[in-house]
Amino acid sequence: MTIKPIRRIVTGHDAQGKAIVIEDGPLPTVVPIEKIPGTMFHEIWSTEGTPAAVHNGPDPTLGPLMLPPPKHGSRIRVVDIPPDSEEYLTHGAARMKEAFAQIGDAAASTVRTDSPHPLMHRTESVDYGVVLEGEMTLVLDDSEVLLHQGDVVVQRGTNHAWANRSGRMCRMLFILIDGEYDPAIRDALASR
Predict the structure, then answer these.
(1) Burial letters for 72-92: b for 16+ Cβ neighbours within 10 Å, e otherwise?
(2) Beta pairing, strands 125-133 & 170-178
(3) Rg (CA), the chain
(4) Residue 41: beta bridge partners?
(5) Which residue from 84, 82, 182, 171 is spatially nearest to 126, judged by alpha carbons?
(6) Sequence-separated contacts (24+) of 136-139 with Cβ below 8 Å
(7) 3-class DSSP state for residue 23?
(8) What digits encode the pLDDT tens for the residues 102-120?
């Protein structure tokens, strides 16, 4: 699979309210994740609240990389995920806090010695994950689901990881929406 650059078209309004193209080109923020070699975050856009402000303001993807969406906001990104390597699976858990720190949320990592995958994590958000190219395995606490191109996951704040066991790159689209745990779920998570 050839991973091609992502073209982003951003629209806006001119002074008379006419719809115009503000930007048309490659993404300004594409970040390799150092502790997970081959993984690339392609930041597309984010919103800071709901309702989302509609304006011709600055590009919200510039600045530090952040895993979760902004409070009351959303985030859209594409992630290129390489195949899991034996070295990564054997020694990856020790580096995952650092990997999550690089993507702005060290607290998201939930990996323990008995975790089913070294990238287990959780965010208080609703995430839509779409397999654009390749295959991916969604790993949960006690189950796994093999995903193929076109499959969509609605991930509702659960402990999970993405395992690429296909032997080739996978590209996924993620749309993250800030969330808040139901009190019963929050209590159950706190007692784990």
Answers:
(1) ebbbbbbbbbbbbeeebeeeb
(2) antiparallel
(3) 18
(4) 31, 79
(5) 182
(6) 136/81, 136/162, 136/163, 136/164, 136/166, 136/170, 136/172, 137/162, 137/163, 137/164, 137/165, 138/162, 138/163, 139/163
(7) strand
(8) 888 888 888 888 889 888 9
pLDDT given at position 150: 98
pLDDT at position 37 is: 87
pLDDT, mean of each 10-residue run, the chain (192 residues):
85 97 96 90 96 94 94 97 80 73 86 87 96 97 97 97 95 97 94 85
Exposure letters 132-168 (e unless 16+ CB within 10 A, then b): ebbbbbbbeeeeeeebeeeeebebebebbbbbbebee
Four-residue CA torsion sign, 58, 123, 178, 77: positive
Q: Architecture of domain 31-190 in CATH?
A: Sandwich (2.60)
Spatial distance between the Cα atoms of 42 and 30, rounded to a whole number of angstroms: 5
Q: Enter the DSSP assignment of 76.
A: E
Please, what is the Cα angle at 75 between 74 and 76, to 5 degrees? 130
* Residue given tokens 């990238």 in the structure block: 119
Name the 3-class secondary structure at 55.
Answer: coil
Domain boundaries of the chain, sorted by first residue: 31-190
